[in-house]
Design a protein that fits this description.
about 260 residues; alpha+beta; 3 domains; 6-stranded antiparallel sheet; 6 helices; about 20% helix; elongated
């Protein structure tokens, strides 16, 4: 709560009675209430961003790999299999591939570490056990928030994500955790849950800037030290989706104006 206050975020101490009223099935002796926390539909959000971009004259080149980025007198040139695009500046927001984009542009070296997060879900008959978003105290490793409960706009309740560093940035399914691995972390928050109340969910891969031996690395949002016009927006882990509009405004105001 002190950390929230330092960062200008409202976080209020919640009494046991408050917790029982809002989340009667959650086991908690103490809690903090974040009145401005919410959840968005990530897929709908990205689709709306794409529509807004195209409405303002932008072009989205789907399925178009970047092969080379070279310096020219007037800026940078991006080579794809079909064309060359001249640009005053290039924003490297390539997620799990951001370090490769920097390398092919002749930019400074850094490493993106793929970190898989897996989810389970509450089965439909058990979804009413959770009414909102329920987080434990952040994970002591510093690598994540710990397994938490997220009620989505559609009414599903996600359980997760887990944390596992891996080499392959495209491997979402190999050696998935069995459903039983989610039972005990879920029961710390929802003691009445049984294995019959759970089912496997989706998985995702975070783009982290620090290896598992380190606790934290901040987002990399700044111009490249070696290539003028190359702007890095890399290692955007949680809460990168939530902060994406603010990140875009920051980059535009500070590096592209």
């Amino acid at each position: 709560m002190r950390n929230a206050a330092r960062n200008g975020a409202q976080l209020d101490e919640a009494s046991p009675a408050f917790v029982r009223e809002r989340e009667p099935h959650i086991a908690a002796t103490r809690a903090a209430w974040s009145p401005h926390t919410g959840w968005i539909d990530a897929d709908a959000y990205v689709q709306r961003l794409a529509a807004e971009l195209e409405a303002h004259g932008g072009v989205i080149l789907r399925g178009t790999p970047v092969q080379h980025i070279v310096r020219r007198a007037t800026g940078l040139a991006i080579a794809t299999p079909r064309e060359t695009i001249d640009a005053d500046a290039v924003v490297n927001a390539a997620g799990l591939m951001a370090h490769h984009v920097s390398a092919i542009a002749g930019g400074e070296p850094f490493t993106i570490y793929p970190c898989r997060g897996e989810y389970a879900e509450l089965a439909p008959h058990a979804r009413e056990l959770v009414h909102g978003l329920v987080y434990p105290v952040p994970h002591p490793s510093g690598h994540g928030l710990g397994v938490h409960l997220t009620r989505t706009i559609s009414g599903a309740v996600w359980i997760g994500p887990t944390i596992r560093y891996q080499e392959d940035p495209s491997d979402y399914e190999r050696d998935r955790l069995p459903l039983e691995e989610f039972l005990e972390p879920t029961r710390r928050l929802l003691p009445t849950v049984t294995i019959a109340d759970l089912r496997l969910g989706s998985s995702g891969i975070r783009a982290k800037l620090h290896p598992p031996t380190e606790r934290f690395a901040d987002f990399l949002i700044r111009p490249d030290a070696q290539v003028p016009g190359l702007i890095h927006v890399a290692g955007i882990d949680s809460p990168g989706l939530t902060a994406s509009l603010a990140i875009g405004e920051y980059v535009a105001d500070n590096f592209l104006s």
